[in-house]
Each structure stands twice: as structure tokens, then as C-alpha cells.
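FORM 12-B: Structure-to-Sequence Request
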């Protein structure tokens, strides 16, 4: 494809809707044009737009259009890229339809991806086009990879070998690079390089900018597994070897070797079938580097990486190679589940309980739940790994739907930390402080031993509320129903909901009293201030998304922590995830009660997961660890479970409560959120929806009620919550209900199947 055609095609792809060009974009349709007398096929095309169904087009049968191919077709006066969903061969009636404009040369969307899109659209109550948009995220992957010229020695010697020419040939033998780069490396002029091309000593080679990824080296073996690990490994490998759908919960305490065990299953899958593909999902982009390093060590090559922060060139290459079936091992964030794997044989979800598998914006989905469906549709194995499994997964394992593979002990000499509650009524901090003397003592002892400490406070910034001492005015976000959080380092007040921020005012905007603000409550910055007062000599750092906004800064901080350049780390939930700090032996949880407020269905479960994961950071290696948990509610079941490290007892009690109330996983929930730019419109829309709700057996409907966050970005929000018995098709109910009502065009209706956020 020449460069003009490429640019034009790219424009069409990128904008998705390009004005109709004069001629065809790709060679394949130019050929097609020669078959005017051909029979016609009826081609149904699904576009990455919120349309309810595919649109029909005609195409000459000789074009051989197949489902899954990417095409360009007109919608009105626009050309739009879409995916062929169905083809009816030799259909006379097709002659009245508009013609497919072009066929893109990229790898087609595999049948399994299309079935997964259809299934997800139904389950999530979304137009399938919305799911296609997530799947076809890298339009450039649909064009042939761009190429560039490099020079390679032909073996022929030039008639005259000058010193400069010898240097060029020497460099060219090391690596094939462009003429300009070769001249630079050989420290000579481009004329010398050109002379070597002219005399035939160097030849031009066209190379792809997106070469296939190197294959994993399956001859390597993993670590020598302990007996327990070996047994676990066999349990997860056997179903992979046998093939077909299978789900296993790999349930092992932090540091027990879950990663080592699932790496064996990955090797097994790649080994069993030379075309097999494997996907490993990890919860946080910040963790990719650590995960990549472990995979590289095991398989000799970096796995293919996929998450929202990868560069677009890497994205294009990864997508194309996955779709072509050549990328065999992919490590990614939740969105990698939508990559078009034609031959996926194993999915691993690490830290399966992690809330970041739930996408809350755009298409709302829970990647873990969709992964079960993906595995079932594609006859593939799924391993869910966690030290603190979600109740959903645990119940499925206990009821025998999933295999339950256990690793009850830490690997080697490492022991689980001692966990103790600090009753804040009995051991309160000094007035105006947040750390009880016990926590300070714990950190002081670790410091004396030359070991590291971690204080965990799951709130960014300095203080969650800023109010005026003179008039009591609370600083609120202007367009959302939330307080502004003070960030002392940046000197700003920030809305954590929308990102809105302002410099902290010098006077109260209400009563104009200067310097009248008081900061209420702590965030990590405030805890750091307090820790610094106690340990002025210590090296103290904050670990939150504000101090480490990208992968590089996370890597840097983690590396300094590992090298022992930090004594005390103060972190938000970002520290709970997967990090392995050998010299960290003391953990202080500043406010374990924080997550329990707000009446969320999973509040107890999540608090248990987060706090025990944080506590699990202590004593990962030979040195014993200790965790102290500050709470005002030491008698709460979740606190007792944390102190006694009795996860199963706690989850069993949670499960009983949920079962009695018919809540997930014993029943299903679906939320409908109505939002509108003004209150009246929001109320009218919510009322109209409420009145239209069909009666259904085995289903309760609550609402409409103002959402706890009643206004976000100026949109007024009302919520409904539906609860269905297992076996009721909740998605079908929600779809039928919402379709009954015609709402004002400014009203937005969002459906959240299996909600995790009740705000
Ligand atoms: P988990 O995923 O359960 O938290 P990991 O697989 O990360 O546990 O193991 C914890 C640590 O112990 C890692 O540093 C890992 O390399 C090491 N480890 C686990 N099993 C073995 C083994 N059989 N031999 C050597 N090191 C091991």
C-alpha cells in the first residue's frame, strides 16, 4: 500500500467516520469492482457504535467476505469501519442494499470473539456495538504493519575497502539498521554507506515495524516446587492438559507460591498445544513490571503486554499478533479479556478479589465474571488466584462448581505475621494525632532492628474535609456532591470524584474570614507529618497515586524500598497489591474502620481483603512480621476475623447473611442509574421508569431514590436497585424494562449488572 493510500485509510480508521473518498481504499475492493456480473452476498455489519443491531449491505460473492472480517461501509453519507457479523450467500434481495465499500486486510475477529461480544452485550444490557468498540480498540492493527528500510551486508566485498567502508560493514554485520543510523554508528558520511549499496556490498531490506513476538521458551523449567506446591500444581495443570472448560480457585496465603504454581499451568497450556494462547490478568498497571520480570525469568521472553497505558504502536502490534494467533502469552489489565484470541486455552486472574477488575466507567463490567463466560464459550481453563478470594468465588468453590486448590502455608521459612488489634478507645493517640503509642512503638522497634515499616491509610491527600472555623462552611466540589480533599503538597483542594481542583483559598468564600480553615480528619500526607515528628531522622515516603502517578515512578519507589533506601512507607491501597518487600516487618493500619462506613454490600468483605493483604506485606521472608490494626470497633466480626486470621469463619458468616437476604452470590443485583442535567428532569425520568417497571416473579425492585452521590459533574442522579433470585434472567428483565420508556434526550440511563459501587 502506498503512503497516500495508507494515510487515507488511517484517517478513515482513526476517526471511524470519514467523508466518503472518491475511490476505494484498498486493493481488494478494486479487484472486486471487476466482478460486476457476480452474484451478491448479503453482509450484516456490526459497527462500533451504540446501535442495537448489525446493518445489512451487499457485496459481490467473489469478494469472499466472511464473518469476522473488518470492512468499511457507508452509514448515511459517512464511511464507518465495522465487523462482518453474518453473511448470506447469493442473496438476490441484496441488490437493493448499499454496497460494502472496502475490506480491511487485518486478521478477522475470531468466531469466539463474536460470540463473546454477543453474550456480553446481552448480559451487560448494552448494544453489542459498544462491546465491539472495546474489542476493536486498535484500528491501525487492521492495516498491514508499516515497514522501514534497513541495510544488510550481502557478503560481497567492495572493490576497494577503505577504513570507513570497513567500519560500516562491521557495524552492518552487528545489526541491520537504516542508512542514516549505520553512518552514525560507523562515524562516517552517508555517501560512504551509499557507495557500499551501489557496489552491492550492502542490500536494502524492508522490515516490518511490528515483527511477531519471540516465542516463550518452553524448555526452561520453573523453581523446584515444595510438595504442597507440587500437588497444587498438578491439580491446576491436569485440567489444562485435558483441555475444555474448567475453573479452579487457587487459594493460598500471601507468599505461598501461587504465582509459581500458576506459571506451571501456563507452561502446561503452551506446551500441550503449539497454537495455544494464554492470558494472565493482573489488577494494577503498577504491577506489570514486577509480573513481567517473573514471566521473563520463567519463559526467557517478555510476555505481550496489554493495558490502557501502553504506547499505540505496542497496542497495534499486540492486537494484530493476538488476533493472528501468534502472540502466545499475554499479561494485561482487565481490558485484555476483550483481545481477539482465536485459540485461548488458559486464563489466569491473579488477585481475583481485586476491585479493579470491575470497570465502572463506560461499559460497566466485572472482568472476573466475564472471564468465566469467556472460558465457557471458548472451552478454556480458568485459574482464579487469591489469598482472600471474593465471596462469589469461594462459594462457587465450596459448592463444587470450581475446583478448590489450596496452599495454606508461606513458602520456605516465612511465617504469616502476628496480627493484633489496637482498640482506639483503650489506646488512643494523643489529642490531635492519629497514631496510637503502640503503632509508634512498633515502628520504632523495627527501625532499631534496621527493618522497614509500613503505615496504611486508605485516603489520598492531607485531610478529607476543610471547614471554616468562623462560619462552619464546608468546602465542596462545585458540580458534584462531594467534599474537597485538601492536598498540602500541591496546596490545592481536590475533588476525588471528578479530579476538579482549586488552590486552597486564603479566606473563607462564605464569610471572607482570612486563614479560618481547619483540616478535619487524616489522609496519608497528614499521617506522614505525624510520623516525621516522631522519627525526624528516618527516611519516610508516601506511596499513593499522587506520588506515583505512572508505572515508572511506581517502579522507582518499589526499587528504593527493596534496596532499603526507605525506612517508613506511608501508603494507600496501592501498597496492598502484590509487592514483596523482604525487609518490611512492621505494618500499622491507621484506620481499619474506614471502609466499613457507607453500608456497601461488600464493605466487610473488602475491608477484610484489603487489611489482610496489607498485613500480609509484613514478614514475607525469613524475618517475622507483625501487624497492628487500629479500630474503634474491635468487636466487629471483620476485626475479630482479622485478629484471629480466621478468614473462613468470617466469610461463612458473611455468606449466611447474604443467603438470608438473597444477596449475591445467592441472588443477583442490578442497578439502574438515571442522570439528568437538572433535578426536575431527573425526577421525571426516574418516575417514568419506576411506573413502567414490569412485575416479575422472584424479583424485588427498590427505588427510585436520590443516589448517595446525588450530583456528579452537574448531573443529578437517581438510582434503582433490582434483586433477583438465582435463575431469574435479570439482564433480560432490565433490558425489557428500560426499553419500555422513551426518555428525554438529555437523560442518561446506565445499567450496572452486579454493581460493586452503590454510590
Ligand atoms: P504468592 O503469589 O502466593 O504471593 P509467590 O509465588 O509470589 O507467592 O511466592 C512468594 C515468594 O516465594 C516469591 O519470591 C517466590 O519466588 C518465592 N517462592 C515461592 N515458591 C518457591 C519455590 N518453590 N522455590 C523458591 N522460591 C519460591
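FORM 12-B RESPONSE
SEQUENCE OUT:
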Amino acid at each position: 500500500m502506498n503512503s497516500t493510500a495508507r494515510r487515507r485509510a488511517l484517517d478513515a480508521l482513526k476517526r471511524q467516520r470519514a467523508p466518503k473518498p472518491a475511490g476505494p481504499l484498498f486493493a481488494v475492493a478494486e479487484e472486486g469492482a471487476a466482478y460486476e456480473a457476480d452474484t451478491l452476498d448479503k453482509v450484516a455489519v456490526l459497527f462500533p457504535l451504540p446501535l442495537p443491531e448489525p446493518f445489512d449491505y451487499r457485496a459481490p460473492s467473489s469478494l469472499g467476505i466472511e464473518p469476522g472480517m473488518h470492512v468499511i461501509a457507508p452509514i448515511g453519507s459517512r464511511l464507518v469501519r465495522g465487523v462482518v457479523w453474518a453473511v448470506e450467500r447469493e442473496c438476490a434481495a441484496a441488490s437493493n442494499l448499499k454496497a460494502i465499500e472496502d475490506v480491511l486486510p487485518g486478521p478477522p475477529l475470531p468466531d469466539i470473539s463474536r460470540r463473546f461480544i454477543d453474550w456480553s452485550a446481552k448480559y451487560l444490557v448494552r448494544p453489542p456495538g459498544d462491546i465491539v468498540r472495546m474489542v476493536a480498540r486498535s484500528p491501525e492493527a487492521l492495516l498491514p504493519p508499516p515497514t522501514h528500510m534497513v541495510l544488510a551486508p550481502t557478503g560481497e566485498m567492495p572493490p576497494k575497502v577503505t577504513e570507513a567502508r570497513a567500519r560500516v560493514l562491521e557495524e552492518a554485520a552487528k545489526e541491520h539498521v537504516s542508512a542514516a543510523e549505520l553512518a552514525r554508528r560507523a562515524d562516517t558520511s552517508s555517501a560512504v554507506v551509499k557507495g557500499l549499496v551501489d557496489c552491492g556490498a550492502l542490500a536494502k531490506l524492508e522490515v516490518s515495524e511490528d515483527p511477531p513476538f519471540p516465542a516463550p521458551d518452553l524448555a526452561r523449567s520453573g523453581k523446584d516446587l515444595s510438595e504442597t506446591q507440587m500437588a497444587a500444581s498438578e491439580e491446576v495443570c491436569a485440567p489444562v492438559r485435558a483441555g475444555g472448560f474448567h475453573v479452579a480457585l487457587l487459594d493460598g496465603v500471601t507468599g505461598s507460591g501461587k504465582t509459581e504454581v500458576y506459571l506451571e499451568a501456563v507452561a502446561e497450556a503452551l506446551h500441550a498445544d503449539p497454537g495455544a494462547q494464554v492470558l494472565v490478568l493482573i489488577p494494577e498497571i503498577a504491577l506489570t513490571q514486577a509480573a513481567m520480570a517473573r514471566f521473563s525469568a520463567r519463559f526467557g521472553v517478555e510476555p505481550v503486554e496489554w493495558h490502557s497505558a501502553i504506547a499505540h504502536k505496542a497496542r497495534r502490534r499486540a492486537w494484530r499478533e493476538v488476533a493472528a494467533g501468534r502472540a502466545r502469552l499475554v499479561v494485561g489489565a482487565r481490558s485484555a479479556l476483550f483481545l481477539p484470541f482465536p485459540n485461548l486455552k488458559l486464563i489466569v486472574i491473579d488477585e481475583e478479589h481485586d476491585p479493579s477488575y470491575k470497570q465502572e466507567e463506560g461499559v460497566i463490567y466485572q472482568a472476573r465474571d466475564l472471564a468465566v463466560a469467556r472460558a465457557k464459550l471458548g472451552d478454556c481453563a480458568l485459574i482464579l488466584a487469591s489469598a482472600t478470594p471474593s465471596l462469589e468465588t469461594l462459594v462457587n468453590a465450596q459448592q463444587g462448581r470450581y475446583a478448590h486448590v489450596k496452599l495454606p502455608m508461606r513458602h520456605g521459612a516465612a511465617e504469616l505475621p502476628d496480627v493484633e488489634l489496637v482498640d482506639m478507645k483503650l489506646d488512643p493517640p494523643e489529642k490531635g494525632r492519629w497514631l496510637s503509642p503502640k503503632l509508634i512503638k512498633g515502628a520504632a522497634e523495627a527501625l532499631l532492628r534496621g527493618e522497614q515499616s509500613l503505615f496504611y491509610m486508605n485516603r489520598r491527600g492531607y485531610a478529607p474535609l476543610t471547614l471554616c472555623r468562623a462560619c462552619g462552611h464546608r468546602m465542596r466540589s462545585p458540580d458534584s456532591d462531594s467534599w474537597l480533599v485538601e492536598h498540602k503538597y500541591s496546596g490545592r483542594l481536590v475533588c476525588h470524584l471528578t479530579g476538579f481542583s482549586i488552590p486552597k483559598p486564603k479566606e473563607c468564600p462564605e464569610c471572607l474570614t482570612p486563614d479560618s480553615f481547619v483540616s478535619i480528619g487524616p489522609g496519608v500526607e497528614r499521617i506522614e507529618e505525624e510520623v516525621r515528628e516522631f522519627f525526624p531522622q528516618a527516611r519516610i515516603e508516601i506511596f499513593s497515586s499522587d506520588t506515583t502517578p505512572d508505572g515508572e515512578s511506581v517502579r522507582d519507589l518499589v526499587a528504593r524500598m527493596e534496596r532499603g533506601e526507605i525506612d517508613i512507607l506511608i501508603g494507600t491501597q496501592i501498597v496492598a497489591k502484590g509487592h514483596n518487600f523482604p525487609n518490611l516487618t512492621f505494618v500499622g493500619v491507621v484506620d481499619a474502620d474506614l471502609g466499613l462506613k457507607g453500608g456497601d454490600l461488600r464493605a466487610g468483605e473488602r475491608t477484610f481483603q484489603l487489611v489482610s493483604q496489607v498485613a500480609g506485606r509484613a514478614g514475607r521472608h525469613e524475618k517475622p512480621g507483625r501487624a497492628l490494626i487500629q479500630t474503634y470497633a474491635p468487636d466487629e466480626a471483620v476485626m475479630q476475623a482479622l485478629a484471629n486470621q480466621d478468614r473462613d469463619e468470617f466469610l461463612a458468616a458473611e455468606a449466611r447473611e447474604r443467603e438470608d437476604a438473597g444477596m449475591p452470590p445467592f441472588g443477583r443485583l442490578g442497578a439502574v442509574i438515571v442522570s439528568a442535567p437538572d433535578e426536575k428532569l431527573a425526577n421525571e425520568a426516574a418516575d417514568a421508569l419506576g411506573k413502567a417497571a414490569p412485575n416479575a416473579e422472584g424479583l424485588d425492585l427498590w427505588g427510585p431514590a436520590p443516589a448517595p452521590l446525588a450530583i456528579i459533574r452537574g448531573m443529578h442522579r437517581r438510582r434503582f436497585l433490582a434483586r433477583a433470585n438465582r435463575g431469574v434472567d435479570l439482564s433480560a428483565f432490565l433490558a425489557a424494562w428500560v426499553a419500555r420508556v422513551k426518555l428525554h434526550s438529555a437523560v442518561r440511563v446506565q445499567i450496572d449488572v452486579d454493581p460493586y459501587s452503590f454510590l
